[in-house]
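pasting for the record
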Amino acid sequence: MPVEIDLFTVTESMAPRSRRSSSADTQPAAATDAPVRSAADADSLSVEERIYASITTALLQGRLRPGAQLVERDLAAAFGCTRGALRKVLARLGFEGKLVLEANRGAFVPSPSEEDIRQVYRARQIVEAGIVAALCGALSAAHKRRLRAHVRSEEKALCAGAIDESVRLAGQFHVLLTELAGGTELLGLVGQLVAKTELYKALFDPSKGSACSADEHAHIIDALDAGDLAAALTAMREHLSELEERVVEQVRRSAAGEDLGAVFGL
């Protein structure tokens, strides 16, 4: 039996589309050498991006429960879009690990086990240790400016209480390190791993979804800048380990709560 969800939690962040004016509809297209995209194609792309943003925001704000099913028919009706457009969005979210797509069943919010979570963090530990080693003592002045500016943005989002933005920026710090290390081939992998751990935090501890501390990121930058490899590796390892344990603890508490509810018929 699929877990029911309130579609309002998904669709409330989707801004309504404004109607085009009749004058805009009748204006001829400007001359250009580039291929002309039809208004219908452009509109379809816009709808897909808005649906993607709405579902992603709902996930990162912890408004969808682990294991909840996103019923294609109901979502298409709620968003006022075609099922074809919705399928493209669900496929993209599935590829990014934000949803689990099951053949002949549909799309589900991930419901990872403790072991699933630990495996993803283990992968991050291994990959990001190599990134730290590549950057240690090799940060240019421009690199340091970008990293410190990013940490300031994290702090600003946290102070403003913008949880989903804080989560996004916290994850992007690690993607930025990968980029600065010249890890073009690793960007996709690190991006997917970070997206999964961001989602785990949001699903199980939405009120503390921004717990990837900007201060801890600043300590990592300091160690890299000083060329202290041992300190940099320790800072990164402890940072990721602390995040992992916080999420796992919430998973355990959630499971314990569900068990008690079942016992007492609540």
